[in-house]
Design brief:
Two copies of one chain form a homodimer. Chain A is of the alpha+beta class. The longest helix of chain A has 13 residues. The first copy, chain A, has two domains: 50 residues, Winged helix-like DNA-binding domain superfamily/Winged helix DNA-binding domain (Arc Repressor Mutant, subunit A), CATH 1.10.10; 82 residues, 2-Layer Sandwich (Alpha-Beta Plaits), CATH 3.30.70.920. In chain A, a hairpin with a 6-residue loop joins strand 3 and strand 4. Chain A is built from five helices and five strands. The interface between A and B is large, with 75 and 75 residues. Chain A binds a DNA duplex (30 and 30 nucleotides) through helix 3. Chains A, B: Keywords: DNA-binding, Transcription, Transcription regulation. Chains A, B: InterPro entries: ArsR-like_HTH, AsnC-type_HTH_dom, Dimeric_a/b-barrel, Tscrpt_reg_AsnC-like, Tscrpt_reg_AsnC/Lrp_C, Tscrpt_reg_HTH_AsnC-type_CS, WH-like_DNA-bd_sf, WH_DNA-bd_sf.
Chain lengths: 164, 164
DNA sequence: TGTTATTTCGCAACATTATTGCTTATATGG
DNA sequence: CCATATAAGCAATAATGTTGCGAAATAACA
């Protein structure tokens, strides 16, 4: 995995990305006005950013509470054997569970994987843990932290670090 | 904070939400075809879902690597005193840092807060930690886990649990 | 610094898409 | 089984996105 080639972006591109990060529902006209451009070059820039893969995808964020999904859990998982096969199998299983919003392979002695899962309630979580996670081969340790308050939750990146 | 009143949604609403979750860039026409509806009732349903707050917002997801943001870190933070003032101050500070994508107040003895932050590299992380996080009053313990691989990363909720 | 080449802009025309009014159909409840 | 309410589809309208092209600005080079 070679070092990613950085695209050359000017301030206008960054302003576009910044605006879209926080409000993906903006129309091209609104976006154009926000960044001080007429609609046509604005649209062309967005197309370029999509073609370059800098804009990965659009997501629609739903209200979990209003859908009866009241429990979010952060799970730390450790594996007994660190073989590529175990890891591949674990990742494949985990990726197939709709409850899993995030799964990262991380450094650290306490855990190999960090997961964020969403379920309706404790019962649902117990079921998920016992019937799905702990049944995956190689899972040796599980530690759960329950989310009490969501202070920050966004996909927005710190674009202030990006060179122009 | 009383129990959230669940909206009554039929299968069509759920199909709309499911489609939009994974592809917020769908046009209303594409969405209508996906869920087997003509464009007008489809548009009206989406408007209702937005008005009801079930659709919270649209986000545009960017490629961190292509922007030179190569390091994602999960930070566990513990506080020395669990007073509301300390917590409020911490949360206010944390919410103002663009590097912070997520911050949750969680249960557990190891940590009070779990953060996910994005920075360009180790240097940037060190700077963030020393000049921002550890300077917040009350922060007594910090443990960092570095993300090596992103297995799953989505905002999509498990709508299979939602009653129709 | 003058000149050329390249890029990006904005206008206007065109194409596509979203939205609204209204009628018809489909459920719901008495 | 009829009355009422809810949602669907069609067609017209409104709004929005997109493209070609000439002008302007910017950058590159002599």
């Amino acid at each position: 995995m070679r070092k990613q080639e950085l695209a050359k972006l000017d301030r206008t591109d960054l302003r576009i990305l910044e605006a879209l990060q926080h409000n993906g529902g903006l129309t091209n006209q609104q976006l154009a006005e926000t960044v001080g451009l007429s609609p046509s070059p604005c649209s062309r820039r967005v197309q370029k950013l999509e073609a370059a893969g800098i804009i990965l995808k659009r997501e629609t964020v739903l209200d979990a509470r209003k859908l009866g999904l009241d429990l979010t859990v952060i799970i730390q998982i450790s594996m007994d054997r660190h073989t590529p096969e175990r890891f591949a199998n674990f990742e494949e299983k985990v990726a197939s569970y709709p409850e899993v919003q995030q799964c990262y392979l991380v450094t650290g002695q306490e855990a190999d994987y960090l997961l964020k899962v969403v379920v309706p309630d404790i019962d649902g979580y117990q079921h998920f843990l016992l019937n799905k996670i702990t049944r995956i081969e190689g899972v040796s340790g599980v530690h759960s932290s329950f989310v009490m308050r969501r202070v920050v939750d966004t996909a927005a990146l710190p674009l202030n670090y990006v060179e122009t």
